[in-house]
Automatic annotation (TrEMBL):
Record-linked CDD domains: SAICAR_synt_Sc (cd01414)
Protein name as catalogued: Phosphoribosylaminoimidazole-succinocarboxamide synthase
Keyword presence, Cell inner membrane: no
GO molecular function: ATP binding; phosphoribosylaminoimidazolesuccinocarboxamide synthase activity
Record keywords, A-Z: ATP-binding, Ligase, Nucleotide-binding, Purine biosynthesis
BP terms from Gene Ontology: 'de novo' IMP biosynthetic process
Catalytic reaction(s) noted: 5-amino-1-(5-phospho-D-ribosyl)imidazole-4-carboxylate + L-aspartate + ATP = (2S)-2-[5-amino-1-(5-phospho-beta-D-ribosyl)imidazole-4-carboxamido]succinate + ADP + phosphate + 2 H(+)
One GO location term (cellular component): cytoplasm
Family indicated by similarity: Belongs to the SAICAR synthetase family.
Cited SUPFAM superfamilies: SAICAR synthase-like
Amino acid sequence: MPVTSHLPGWTHTYSGKVRDLYVPDGSPSTAAHGDVVLVVASDRVSAFDHVLDPGIPGKGVVLTQLSLWWFEQLADLVPNHVVSTDVPAQVAGRAMVCRRLEMFPVECVARGYLTGSGLAEYRVSGSVTGIPLPAGLVDGSRLPEPIFTPATKAELGEHDENVPFETVVGVVGADTAATLRELTLAVYGRAEAIARERGVILADTKLEFGTDPTTGAITLGDEVLTPDSSRFWPADLWQPGRAQASFDKQFVRDWLTSPSSGWDRASDSPPPSLPTDVVARTRDRYLDAYERLTGASLTV
Ligand code: ATP
Ligand code: MG
């Protein structure tokens, strides 16, 4: 799916797997006092580090609206990058004008439950990013307390790598590392409680912070607490010891790894196009997550 070709007044600067960034025409190359950036969420969906075809209609709107809702829930805990939702008509609903931050090259992950790369690490070492955990935990186990398990940001197409806290100290300094950990766990704690009230388990989440060159403040950027950056599980179906049902692109992953896709994940070949029903069911999952968490419905 191509990047939205031209947005009047904005220059395209970057595209990740899901989002496209624009700066106002004529902006300098690095963030300076008062600069803004337009963060546009596309309908692109990625799985196993591949961007898939086709996209999920409405996904960009869901990610953006859910992030905006969460930023509000968290506003008293941490400053965020949102400036306005007054955006070009072509990207209405799926873009936000944000303060342009100097991003820290650290994925700030909080986990309250054990799964994914955390579980894989635990099975080898009994710890996650150097944090020792009790014996006997299984896929989906609740941890004794939430933990900060940072990762270094990988280049496009590469896996992020879990790293010990000391590595973050080496990259951003001891004070900033401590603040990132504290803010990440505070955001997780708040969000986990809100989700729980709505029958949803927030198993883990990934945040990205940056420095606001105008205020100097460590500021929450990127998207927050979406099904792309977090694992949300329906609480009534939670059962440690197996993979959990989840509000995300589970259908995409399940289909890609099933015999019906005919795709060999270990091969270099790109994944096949997604069938219509997988696209529709994935779209429903994203909308369902939005509605359960916010209690509002979304027309996309
Ligand atoms: P990946 O495809 O692995 O997710 P990515 O994280 O680089 O790579 P996206 O998430 O699609 O790609 O793009 C969002 C990018 O915008 C990220 O690089 C993120 O760090 C950056 N970003 C988010 N908010 C801001 C901000 N306020 N100022 C500057 N950069 C930002
Ligand atoms: Mg990203």
